[in-house]
Write a structure and sequence with these properties.
CATH topology of chain A: ABC transporter involved in vitamin B12 uptake, BtuC
Protein name (chain B): Nucleoside ABC transporter ATP-binding protein
Subcellular location (chain B): Cell membrane
Strand content of chain A: under 5%
Largest interface: A-B, 24 and 31 residues
CATH class of chain A: Mainly Alpha
Radius of gyration of chain B: 25 Å
Largest sheet of chain A: 2 strands, antiparallel
CATH class of the largest domain in chain B: Alpha Beta
Largest sheet of chain B: 6 strands, mixed
Strand content of chain B: 25-35%
Oligomer: heterodimer
CATH architecture of chain A: Orthogonal Bundle
Organism (chain B): Paramaledivibacter caminithermalis (strain DSM 15212 / CIP 107654 / DViRD3) (Clostridium caminithermale)
Main location (chain B): membrane
Number of domains of chain A: 1
Order of helices and strands of chain A: HHHHHEEHEHHHHEHHHH
Number of strands of chain A: 4
CATH superfamily of the largest domain in chain B: P-loop containing nucleotide triphosphate hydrolases
Structural class of chain A: mainly alpha
Helix content of chain A: over 70%
Distance between the termini of chain B: 45 Å
Keywords (chain B): ATP-binding, Cell membrane, Membrane, Nucleotide-binding, Repeat, Translocase, Transport
Number of strands of chain B: 24
Strand order of the largest sheet of chain B: 6-9-10-3-11-12
Chain lengths: ~300, ~500
């Protein structure tokens, strides 16, 4: 039974399940660096997932779906920014509000636009294409693990590098980190910390929108109610575990993806799904516990 | 006559509840060192922020290099050649020195990337030109405050400043670092043709460094004088508006037994590093033991450990012969210890509660204020609060006023009123006059001495060397968590003690 679970397919699944986490976490860590704790990623992903399906269905193009998802994410990011940065509301409250709003909005739109309850799937939804690399065809396990994935899996890896370069190699990255660490300092050198916070919030919305579109058009080809299923929060855990560093966060997201995939594989060998579905969340709590314990030990209390 | 590089005409700044600057007109000449002095809340910082463009004045006009300022913003001021070194350094702790200096106007490669190598070269050449040595690749969080201040000055010079505004630049420096800073300022002005505006409340420094002094009181400009023509006493009177008697205090010799003994204390800081590395000392009855040291050398952790607010890793604390190691704050208080914490707003007071309630804290179960440990006797408590408000000269319209609306000095008096009224034999006093004006400082010092003369054993921790020297009977210096020296007051000068505060024994210098 063990080799039914722990095999190459598990690793292949890990890469698939980690991708929405990676995309959302990349957005979230930008806001984290800019000094905003964004717990609204969950809702941003859900809205992205819905508008991805909507765009793909109506325009008959996956690209249109992705663009619409990005646009919807951008809008939510803007709303988040206006409330937390401009009106100085509590980040937590606004994050929760966005999550609740996203749940309600998608259910409402699902009924009023598609006239269905619970889930919407249709052959008219164009999924995101898979990418095939002929070069690694013959490379055995590498081919199994890395080849023939949905396009955003590969794009997410490139984005990790891009975000890393942005944060640590460009002046804008310095400004964004400065905006979080010492906003007054940034202001006195003539760069608006508010502007950097806005940019981070908008980018976070876009990244979460893509994560959602990948979920509903790449990972699956349908929309179901609450399909983000806690991924926004797990992404947040990955950011915390990865200390907001894009490379480490990428690693943390892969780890959480692994547990998600493990849950799915265990279900395949007949372990009760009520239990296997708990695995990614238990793993998240466990990892956060370790992070928190490390901090407490250092405080000496 | 020399060129007027900055000129203010009838500048006023109204904040929602207070008129911070009231119709101020002054001018600063090119190439002079201009000092602005005043008590806390006199409006110095507001005035400076207006010059730097962080505020827009409610009314009045500001001219820089003869040009009237229309839009107030720091980036415009930087373009006009004004640089500001803030009291609380504007540096990002996790960035390197070079990264901090170029922040906001980074040298670039291929237009979008920041060119780290060039930044390091720029900093090196700035260091050479101005004689301000720094390691461009060191992180801000790893260097001393003296170096951080150098970085701040380099930052303004990198941006091309020829007018430097320094806000309380010596507050965190040792006497040696202060001397070094003054040399730099003099060189900037005399050799490199810069103009320096310095804001401070330390009058002796004003007299050493400045050419002219502007004195502010309660938002108004009281006078502008030539430094040559005044002395400390005249300035103090202008600042406070009445005669100030910070004279030597009468301290009769008291021979008392040992009350507190601290042995080989090791305590960790919030990051988990050792903040105290084996500290030992004792305090006798009727004695003030002053702890001198630059902030962040273990002083905060020391008071917290003694007050029971921080875990003691190794070592022992004996209070009146009882081993009180590991006692919680309540038990320590029961042994007869009162504590004036360093940050009154974090651990000293509840801002949103009334003066009465703040004074009650710690006495809420006393039989005279509380029936059956359940029912507070409000009338008695109110009378008690009224009595203390009067005794400790808290300036407030009523005892029901929320503490948060009082001035810093009056807040501190509330803490002192409460803690001094427990009638304990041991006092832990940390930064008793931080952010408190001269008038209140006088009063607080008198109260501390009174307690000493009554026979209290007092531990006094202060960042102000003057205060340590004025009040203490004995002084220990703390550097990187270790006691580096112990002296009877009078045995050592402020200048000499500076060496011990930086870990250099006198003979090594």
């Amino acid at each position: 039974m063990l080799h039914d679970v722990f095999n190459l397919t598990l690793l292949q699944n890990t890469i698939r399940t980690a991708t929405p986490l990676i995309l959302a976490a990349l957005g979230g860590l930008l806001t984290m660096h800019a000094g905003i704790l964004n717990i609204g990623m969950e809702g941003m992903i859900l809205i992205g997932a819905f508008f991805g399906v909507l765009g793909s269905y109506y325009f008959g193009s996956a690209l249109a779906g992705v663009l619409l998802a990005m646009l919807s994410g951008l809008l939510i990011g803007l709303i988040f920014g206006v409330f937390t940065i401009e009106l100085k509301s509590d980040e937590f409250i606004i994050g929760i509000a966005i999550n609740i709003f996203a749940g309600g909005l998608t259910v409402f739109l699902l009924r009023s636009i598609f006239g269905v309850k619970g889930a919407f799937s249709s052959p008219k939804i164009v999924p995101l294409p898979d990418v095939h690399f002929p070069i690694i065809d013959k490379l055995g396990f590498l081919d199994v693990i890395f080849n023939n994935h949905s396009v955003f899996i590969y794009i997410s890896w490139i984005l990790v590098i891009c975000v890393y370069i942005f944060l640590y190699k460009t002046p804008y990255g310095y400004w964004m980190r400065g905006a979080g660490e010492h906003p007054e300092c940034l202001e006195t050198v003539g760069v608006s910390p508010k502007r950097m916070k806005y940019i981070s919030s908008l980018l976070c919305g876009i990244f979460c929108g893509i994560a959602g579109a990948h979920l509903s058009l790449g990972y699956l080809t349908l929309f179901t109610e609450n399909m983000s299923a806690g991924r926004g929060f797990i992404a947040l855990a990955a950011i915390i575990f990865g200390a907001s560093n894009p490379i480490k966060t990428f690693g943390a997201a892969l780890l959480f993806g692994f547990f998600d995939a493990l849950g799915i594989r265990l279900q395949g060998v007949g372990i009760a799904s009520q239990f296997t579905q708990m695995i990614p969340y238990l793993a998240t709590i466990f990892v956060l516990f370790i992070v928190a314990k490390g901090k407490l030990n250092r405080k000496g209390i | 006559m020399s060129e007027r590089i900055i000129e203010l005409k009838n500048v006023s700044k109204q904040f929602p509840s207070v008129l911070a600057n009231d119709n101020i007109s002054l001018h600063i000449n090119k190439g002079e060192i201009y000092a602005i002095v005043g008590e806390n809340g006199a409006g110095k910082s507001t005035l400076m922020k207006t010059m730097y463009g962080l505020h827009e004045p409610t009314s009045g006009e500001v001219y820089i290099k003869g040009e009237k300022i229309k839009s107030f913003s720091p980036s415009n001021s930087i373009k006009r050649g004004i640089g500001m070194v803030h009291q609380h350094f504007m540096l990002v702790p996790s960035f390197t020195i070079a990264e901090n200096i170029v922040l906001g106007s980074e040298p670039r490669s291929k237009r979008i990337f920041s060119d780290k190598k060039k930044a390091v070269d720029i900093v090196k050449s700035l260091s050479r030109t101005y004689g301000l040595e720094v390691d461009p690749n060191a992180k801000i969080q790893d260097v001393s405050v003296g170096i951080q201040q150098r970085v701040e000055i380099l930052k303004t010079l990198y941006k091309g400043a020829d007018i430097l505004i320094l806000d309380e630049p010596t507050a965190v420096l040792t006497p040696q670092e202060t001397e070094e800073l003054f040399k730099v300022i003099k060189r900037l002005v005399n050799e490199l043709d810069k103009t320096v505006i310095i804001i401070t409340h330390k009058l002796n420094e004003v007299l050493t460094i400045s050419d002219r002094v502007a004195v502010m009181r309660q938002g108004k400009l009281v006078d502008v004088v030539n430094t040559r023509e005044v002395n400390e006493k005249i300035l103090a009177e202008l600042m406070v508006g009445r005669e100030v008697l910070l004279e030597d205090i009468d301290k009769p010799e008291i021979k008392g037994e040992e009350v507190v003994r601290v042995k080989d204390l090791v305590v960790k800081d919030n990051r988990g590093f050792d903040a105290l590395k084996g500290v030992s000392f004792h305090i006798n009855k009727g004695e003030i033991l002053g702890v001198a040291g630059i902030e962040g050398n273990g002083q905060s952790e020391l008071t917290e450990a003694l007050a029971g607010m921080r875990k003691i890793e190794v070592g022992h604390v004996f209070i009146k012969g009882i081993d009180a190691t590991g006692f919680n704050p309540k038990k320590i208080r029961e042994l007869g210890v009162a504590h004036i914490p360093e940050d009154r707003l974090v651990t000293g007071l509840s801002k949103v509660s009334s003066i009465t309630d703040n004074i009650l804290m710690g006495s809420q179960f006393k039989e005279e204020f509380c029936k059956n440990k359940l029912h507070l006797k409000r009338d008695k408590i109110r009378d008690y609060a009224k009595k203390l408000i009067k005794k400790f000269d808290v300036r407030t319209p009523s005892e029901d006023v929320k503490v948060g609306s009082l001035s810093g000095g009056n807040m501190q008096k509330v803490v002192i009123a409460r803690e001094f009224s427990f009638n304990t034999e041991i006092l832990l006093i940390s930064q008793p006059t931080r952010g408190v004006d001269i008038g209140a400082i006088e009063f607080i010092h008198d109260q501390i001495i009174k307690k000493r003369n009554e026979g209290c054993a007092i531990l006094l921790i202060s960042a102000e060397l003057d205060e340590i020297f004025r009040l203490s009977d004995r002084i220990i210096t703390l550097y990187e968590g270790k006691v580096t020296g112990e002296f009877k007051n009078g045995e050592i000068t402020k200048n000499e003690i500076g060496y011990y505060m930086t870990g250099n024994r006198k003979e090594q210098v």
